[in-house]
Amino acid sequence: MKVAFLFSSAANVLYLESNRERIIIMLQVGTKAPYFEGVDENGNLIKLSDYSGKKLVLYFYPKDSTPGCTAEACDLRDNYQRFLSLGYEVLGVSKDFVASHQKFIAKYNLPFHLISDTNCVILKDYEAWGEKKIYGKTTVGTIRTTYVIDEQGVIVDAIAKVDTKNHTAQLLK
Length: 173
What we know:
This protein has helices at residues 67-78, 80-85, 98-108, 121-125, 167-171, and strands at 4-8, 13-17, 22-27, 37-40, 45-47, 55-60, 88-94, 113-116, 129-134, 137-142, 145-149, 155-159.
């Protein structure tokens, strides 16, 4: 099988190409994080600039209260004080509605904000929306992805294969 890595500077995206398929990996470490703004679970506007001068764990997940998304959120919740002590804020993004985020946060006592991106603008800007394979079937949806953004707004880490139950360990390796 022939494999090639290509970098698109226009989108700051790395592609892995083979004879059969093309898979978007994600935005690249060292690039400026795309600007975003969205509404959180309380209806408040949250912007990337709100985190200027802070480190941010920005994670994208498919759906509130599903097994994998709950495991990931609870792992981040259980380690939230550790993130704060290391100077990180945590922020989740999905295409769920504000009301769904409110229930998810209340049910699992999540201490961080969740952005409702119903139009998938942030998801697309962060290459977290697109084709994916689930149980052998190709579908379009949220691609579980996490970025760590530094105080200057630069992506310093990017995780495409998220271990939902051990995501903190992946981030703080």
